[in-house]
Every structure is written in structure tokens, then in C-alpha cells.
Amino acid sequence: MVIIQLNSIITIFLPFFNIFRLNKYNEFCGVDGMSGIGTKYRNLKRYKKIGEVLMKYGFTFAAQKLNEKGYIPKLILKPKQQKEYLSHGQKLRMACEELGPTFIKLGQIISTRRDIFPEEVVSQLAKLQDDVKPFPFEEAKKVFEVEMKLRIEDCFKEFNREPIASASIGQVYEAVLNTGENVVVKIQRPSIQRIIKGDLDILFTLAKLLDEHMDKEKPYNLLEIVEEFSRSITKELDYSLEGRNAEKFHAYFKKDTSIYIPQVYWDYTSKKVLTMERVYGIKIIDKQGLKEKKWDLKEVATISANCFLKQVFIYGFFHGDPHPGNIFVVGPSKIAFVDFGITGYLDKGTMNFISNLFTASARRDVDKIVNILIEIDALDSQTNPRRLKEDISFLINLYYNVPLNKLNLGEALKKLMEVAYTNKIKLPSQFIVLLKAMVTLEGSVKFLNPQFSLSNIAKDFVKEIYFHRYNPKNLAGEFKDYSEEILDSIKYLPKQIRTLLKKIENNDIKFQLEQIGIEKLQGELSKMTNKLSLSLISSALIVGSSLIIQNASGPMMWGVSVFGIIGYLLASILGVGIIISILLSGLRKK
After folding, report:
1. For strand 273-277 and strand 282-283, is the pairing parallel, antiparallel, or unpaired?
2. Which residue ranges of the chain lie beneath pLDDT 50?
3. Is residue 565 part of a domain?
4. Which residues are catalytic?
5. Could you tell me whether strands 170-177 and 182-188 are parallel, antiparallel, or unpaired per DSSP bridges?
6. For residue 527, what are the domain limits?
7. 368 in Cβ contact with 334 (< 8 Å)
8. 48 found inside a domain
9. Does residue 30 fall inside a structural domain?
10. What pTM does this model have?
């Protein structure tokens, strides 16, 4: 009876003991050692909730692993009524919705990765909506005043207490500065950073547990996905980064009369508060509103496409979420972008990858495409090169002769992601962000102008890229970078040569050769050595037995030494065994 009670006590308090044995606290939270115990304790309730949701939607394996490590009590693992009529994707989407903002945003990230997740899952997660109830104005006011160390009444002539938009991280208010400018003020939810930090800690733990026990040949690593998500959502939590993104876009397009980027008011901006100029216009998807203004829909579509192409191919820095709610038409030939929380960037390596990929595709050079993927380390060790080439050839031939005005970019990119998933190809994350942005923008542009074709603007835009690339200022900058690179190489070359010569002189140079099939060779050598050893033993027995019989040593039988007879018998058995082994080995090879 005492033993049963003791087991019950241990079961109840196991999660609390687990606090003290957990590994170093997630770097994202900024604490380590004993300082993280308070957060760990708060996470126990969240672990329990996650365990219940996992069991509810049939993710029993994940819940069991959490229980084995002491994160959730065994009581949660009681069988529950399963929703067998739902697909895996539907269960995952509903679980994310029930678990709240962090998991919804993670699901949205996964929904863009058609290259590593099956279509049934990503299509369901794409339906996740970041829609939550607004929090009270009093809480928003408190956040603003703590951040700015100023009273709202002292900063604004007017401030609408009702938010015009509400999301999981923050909500947006209309206001008028004391100087008369109309602005929007984005204020972060009071507890959102603590919630997301706690959820990220749990996600890292869960991802690590599942990676250790799942198929090692799966085309993705859960821990890497959570790390990517952590970086993304950490940036979204810092509104000052969004402000800097907006200023960067403003600098790029300040001379472009067809693009408008709102101004950031830094006096009222911090990590949790963002104040920007209010943009008045018509949403790009409001076709009826644009027609009432008698604005040319085709021209608006062309301007939008041109702007995005400039962002990608000229500046290498683009709006990562150009959905209709983030693009306004503010004049007959002018559009404005808002919400710069999600942006993408393309370094020289990624830009070269995209350019080379499209060039090779245009030439239908399948071998070149595969070589490009190898160069960026996109292929998995399990990828079948022959099958990959077949899939790429099929995709190229499927779309090669399709006119651009009839090409469904979304469908084409979807098939591209299916090829990547089937062949276990992992594409660069920024390339995935770009593809998602392209599909999103294409939907808006095609809505305004169903006959829109890239061929209509490609000629002029290619000229613009050419003039930008070969602009004397840009050429001078590239020449300067190239010269500095060469000078650095020349500068360090003598030192590198001296180091190499010194290693040769001291005999420190080592060559490492990797022999394919070395284990098989070792096995064959081992078998040969064994056979040779047995042959020598057999020969020794025959010689020794002959000497014993000749000298008539030991007990005698039929006038012959018994030891000599035994020796001959053993030698005969070994000899027959060696002959049989050799014959069987020859038959196997045939």
C-alpha cells in the first residue's frame, strides 16, 4: 500500500522535478540555468494543454514522448474519441487553431513549404487565419505609455479608441498627431512576447523529441523548421525592424512617382509600438471602387507587377506578404505598400541561383538544372538523379510552349514544389518566400487584368535591369568590391604559402582517402586469411602425424600410433571443409 501511494506521489510531482533536469533554456528567452525555472513552471500548464490537444486530434505518438520525458502527466494519455473522419491535414489545422497564435503562425510558415511537406497538409494549413478578438484600449494605452514614457493625450490630438485591425501580435489604431499628420499606430499585445517565448521553448523541445524518434530519411528536420520560425516571429515581435524595412523601401522608391511608401514617425516608435503615416486609398482588389474612380485597371496591374520585379531583380529586397490588404491604389497611376513586417532578401548567391535556374529552364538544359541544385546542396542523399531528371524534363515540357498570358503561375509553382517534395529537394528559405510572394501578387494582378502577361512588360523591364546593372555607379561599386577581394587574396597569399611549406617541411600534410566498398574488401580479406590459417593448420597436422607414426610414439592400434591417426582425421576434416568453402564461394559469384 505504501509503495502504491509513493508511486502516485512521484507521478504527480514528476513534472516539477523535471524543471531541474531540463537542458539549457532556449536562447530565444534570454535566460539560462536556475533563472529559467519560473518560466519552466509556467510552461507546465501549457504543456498540459498541448498534450490534451495532441491526444484529441490523434497525435498520440507526440503526446507519449512528452510523457516519457516527464513534461505531461500520464493521466492525459487516456484514450479519447478520435476524429477519424478528418484527414491528417485537417487535424493538424484544427490543432493549430485551438493552440493559438504561435501555432497558427507556425502552420502558416509550414503551408509555404510544399517542397518538404505533402500537398494535403499544406493546403489545409494555408486556410489558417490570423484572426483574434481585440484586446481593451486601456491595455493598449498602458503598453504605449510604458514604451514611450509619454501620455497618449500628450502625443496625439485625436486617438480613436476602437482598433481598425486586430491580429495575434498586435492591433492598429487611427490617430492624429499634435502637428496635424494622420497616422496609424500599431500596438503590441501586452502578454504576447511571454506567450510566444513559452510556446517556442515547448516547440523546440517537441521538435527535438520527434526528430530523435522519427524516420531519419524524412525530407525535413523539425528542429530546423522551428529555428526558422523562431527567427521569423522574433523579427515580427520587433516593430522597430518593420519601421526600418519601411524606410529602406522608401529610399529605393523615393524617385518613383508610381510607388508610394508611408513615412515612419520614430518619435513614437519602439519595439512594441509603430507609428506610420496613414495611407488613404482603395485596396487593389476593390475593382468596383477603382472603376468608380475611372482608374485604368490594366495600368494598375502593370505598375504592381513592375514594382515587385524591381524589388526582386534590382534591389534584392522585396515585400514578403503582398496580399490585397497590403496594397492600396492612391492615384490613377500610383500604388502604396503598407505592413512591412514580413520581407524577403536575396543575396548574390540566391540571385545567381535564380538567374541560372531560369536560364537553364529556358534552354531546357536538365543536366544544368541538376548541377545547380547540387551546387547549393539542395539534394538529399536519398535523391534518385535519374528520376529527378525525368520529373524536371516533364515539368519543362509541360509549360515550355504555354503562352505567358495563359500561364497559371500558382499552378506551375505548385507542381514545382511537388517535384521538390517527391525528390527530397530542399530549396533555400528565401526562395520559398519569393515564390509565395509571387503567387500572392499574381492573384491580385490577374484579378485586375485577366489577360495580364509578363511578356507585355518584360521587354521594357529587361532594359531597366540592363541599365541598372551596367550603370557606371553600380559598375564602379562592383569593381571596387572585386578589387578589394583580389587585393586581400594577394595580401594573404604569401602567408598561406609559408604556412603550407612549413607543414610540408614538418611532415604535417595528411591525405585522407575514402574508399568505396572498403568494408566488403575487408570481409573478403578476412575470409581469405581464415582459409589460409586453416590450410596451414591442416598441413601442420599432416606433417606432425606423419612424424608420430614414423616414430611409433604413444598408444598403438593395429600397429599404428593412435595420436597419428587422430591427427590425420583432423587434417582430413579441415581439408574437406576448406574445399567445400572454396566451391561454395565460386558458386555464389556465378
Report:
1. unpaired
2. 1-38, 516
3. yes
4. 321
5. antiparallel
6. 518-589
7. no
8. yes
9. yes
10. 0.66
